Amino acid sequence: MVNVLNKILFIYFLILTTITTTINSNEILPCNITTNISEQKINVEYEAKTIQDEFIVQFTGYYTAIARTNYLIRVFERNNVSYYEIVKRNNLMQHYPSDFDIVRFNGNEQIINSLKKHPLIRAIYPHRQIIRHIHYSTVEDSIEIGGNKRKLHRSPPNHIRIAESLQAPKLWKMGHRGSGIHVAVFDTGIQDGHPHFPNIAEVTNWTDEKSDHDTIGHGLFVAGVIGSNSECLGIAPEAQLHIFKVFTNNQISYTSWFLDAFNYAIVKKVHVLNLSIGGPDFMDQPFIDKVWDLTSNSIILVSAIGNDGPLYGTLNNPGDQMDVIGVGSITIDDAISRFSSRGMTIWELPAGYGRMKPDLVTYGSLVRGSNLVSGCKVLSGTSVASPVVTGAVALLASSVLHRTPNIINPATLKQALLASAQRIRHANMFEQGHGKLNLLRAFRILNQYVPQASLSPSYIDFTECPYFWPYCLQPLYYSAMPIIVNVTILNGMDVIGEVVGQPQWHPQDSYGQYLELSFDFSSKLWPWSGYLAISMTIHRNASQFEGIVQGHVTLTIESPAKDSESLIQKSDLILPIRVRIIPTPIRSHRILWDQYHSIGYPPGYFPRDDLKQKNDPLDWNADHIHTNFRHVYEHLRNAGYFIEVLGKPYTCFDASLYGTLLIVDPEEEFFVEEISKLHNDIINKSLSLIVFADWYNVSVMRRVQFFDENTRQWWLPETGGANLPALNNLLKPLGIALGDTVLEGNFDLGEHTIYYASGTHIVQFPADGYLIYRPLIDQGETIIRMPSSSRMPQQRHLNLEDHENRVKHQIDIESIMKTRPISMPILGLVEASGGGRVAIYGDSNCIDSVHLVRDCYWLLLALLEFTTSSRVPKLFLQLDENRQMDLDVPELERLNTSRLHKFSRVIERNDIDNTNKQRELPKCFINQPVKPSEPLITNSVSQNNIMRYQNRFMLNEDDSMDNNVIVDNSETSSHLVRAFFTLQNPIFIPSLIGSIGVFFVFIILCRSRLYRIVIFMLYGNGFYHRKSPNSRLKPISKNRQYHFMSSLSKP
């Protein structure tokens, strides 16, 4: 009987398991529960276009529409302008005073100057259109094999439940859920009646479309990460959301739409504003001015830093501004997301050095948020990381609403976030900023906060790698170009402040005086921030010194007194500094990188160096050794060279100190004095020169212009990939010239294969020099022969259509019949009479990280071996002979439509004959180091200093919290459990009855043992020793009792 019952039990459990498995595999899951979730990365591309004959006129204050119109009419009437139009803006701001107008007129300089002279007009700027392309792509791991990309499809990853991962529920339990905080979301709108958003305060439409619905899902997802109240919970579920639709369904926006929407946000007194947008154009001055207006009105602005990683120098605006919280992205494993843009900022180039950005990073890969209609989806991108921080800021702000005086302002919240951030190992300052967002630590810091100023970064240590990359890769030494560190000052005391007196340098010991510091800083800290630029040089007495020197920089920040206070607010700051000094390297190992003659976007349209790159036409990465040429820097350092950056004209460096001057892809003109000095340095001071040039052809430049069908305006290049006419002027005294044939193709040099991407060739070279000829395709002729498109007139390298049309209608250069390869000289080597050596190569793409196909760092090292030593590398032992190329050649034609004079530091427009003329040669700035002060006793530092929480010794784990990321790897199984135990499940009732029956069968089978266990628990061992004639249980021995109980404990 027992065996029969056991078999019945086994069959029952087998059937139940089979049925459950069938239900699990065949059940149709709702959209927010999925067993196969793949990561979608948001690829966002931005284009900013100037609208022809349309201008933003900014006023000094906010005036009514009638008053602004009267001011403009008077100016136009005085200048006899009959045709003009003040564009009417049909949005909510038409009922409020405004500080700008959109005016159409022919753009005459005289009229613009007359408008600028009006006492109530602050500035005039061209109106710009902003075009954003959003593409969702599934991320796949890949490896490079043999030059071809082979994709490794990985298993679907888990995704992050962002609120739980940041441990927001711990703050929710304390009563902090974002209540009372108003958050503005500037994006693509939202869907009416979406079940996730019961706390929408207002939805406004600032576009020219009638509907405010989000048909793309980007804006709705962003809003969900911040404040969703169900399913995929947001971080601040009770925050009041203000939805601003500023992009059309075609992803079109205008600067004026943002300006009006920003003004309305100021009127509505929102606390936090999220911008999951951005672009490389940091010279849209009206936009930047309005961002300053926002933060000066205590609106905390959080912005995505961009999805242009892993390249450096790819930060987007406004996330790169000092008063904005710029957010980068990390993965589930706390690694920097590959797509996350990297610093440094490039505003300060060429004379200065960029600031540390992003400010911090947080989860932006595989984040779960609201779907378009209902349910949830998973997305990746810095536009996902930005609302994560926005939600955290809203949650933190709600926890200090009770504070008097109010401490909710851009500087205070930013200070709390940066001071509490957790350092990520193996990532540098331009990848992670201050580190990973730590919500609970930020909460504790903010609730103990005392208004003060702070510094970002909070210390400088050139011996700490990799965090202080690139500073930590190269020690300091005497006679080097000044090393500049750009520190941001955050002022949490008030929107305005100032640096009192001069910063002071306090060496720690006598060796500390070897480090010479000079300072440049903001005269006024507004809004909430400023800069402190520190230039570092080494004293001549340390030319043979080797060791570590350290000390402290001190400065004092003052702000006006609060209304309830009588004293001026004051904050004393201390910046620890630690650097390594080495003896001055030998001359041959010192390389000077020419940064002064590089110009990039956004000043003008400077095309990419590789003409095949149709979807990325702008050269906007600054061409700096720490941005798109960072791999060059690292290869040279690994080879033992020391690289210094020249941000001044050639007249400002001593050639006797350097072995080689390196000129790569110059777009700028050259001063006459520079040309003369460089020739003298090569002939008389044995300075060597290496030039990596690029393409230039007037006909090709005209063909790569593109027509913006939205603004009805042509965009023409200011120069080619490099400014060869200017470069030829520089090389002319050496008897060298480059031509305008655009070449492309692959060739072998020794054991290496090189891809020549849109390069130039040598047309003149000294007779005693040597040249390398290689057969290449005339890419310029191929481009010129391309048929024009009636749909997009002469558009070659930029398509303003949506992603599908862009792929469909692109004209591929490879689809056009190529010309026959021709043998052209592309590399030349020559030794000047004075000992200096010159190497010329016609293409820079192989050392540029942007769109790199095959690198040629080995070629650069071989050229340096040639220029810095008396030997010829083995690579060049079999050179082709010079084929009589020492004859004079005509100068290259210049593009007569070029506006290079508007952006150049060398030339300007002559108003008399409308030609270009040379500007006055800048004076060479010489650093004036401050006098060292007495050593600082650091124990006297105020314990209220907020940045004491962040130092290099701070652990990534907080003792009082669990930092494990909460991922949704169990969500599917938990849903299946809930789905099984419902009356809608047809097998639930039979399974329940069967389970009850199995339970009773089990009781019957095991009744004897169960009875013994119960008796043992109630009466103990003594029960079996009682002499009771009526007992049904037989007494057992103690030994049997022991074995019986021990058997029960076995598994």
**Which class of secondary structure composition applies to the elements?**
alpha/beta
Low-confidence residue ranges: 12-39, 139-156, 789-817, 951-964, 970-976, 1023-1051
Give the CATH class of the largest domain. Alpha Beta
Number of strands: 39
Q: Tell me, briefly, the overall form.
A: globular
CATH architecture tag of the largest domain: 3-Layer(aba) Sandwich
**First-to-last CA distance:** 25 Å
Kindly estimate the percentage of residues that lie in beta strands according to DSSP.
15-25%
Write the CATH fold name of the largest domain. Rossmann fold
* Rg from alpha-carbon coordinates: 34 Å
Q: Would you tell me the overall average pLDDT?
A: 82
Main β-sheet: number of strands, strand sense, barrel status?
9 strands, mixed
Give the count of helical stretches: 24
Task: Please give the order of strands in the largest beta sheet.
Answer: 26-25-27-28-37-36-35-32-33
Question: What is the count of structural domains?
Answer: 4
Helix content: 10-25%
Keywords: Hydrolase, Membrane, Protease, Serine protease, Signal, Transmembrane, Transmembrane helix
GO molecular function, one term: serine-type endopeptidase activity
Transmembrane segments: 987-1006
GO cellular component, one term: Golgi apparatus
Structure, explained:
- This protein is of the alpha/beta class.
- It is 24% helix and 24% strand.
- The protein is built from 24 helices and 39 strands.
What descriptive keywords fit this protein?
transmembrane; alpha/beta; Immunoglobulin-like; disordered C terminus; Membrane-bound transcription factor site-1 protease; Alpha-Beta Plaits; 7-stranded parallel beta sheet; 1051 residues; serine-type endopeptidase activity; Rossmann fold; 9-stranded mixed beta sheet; single chain; 4 domains; 24 helices
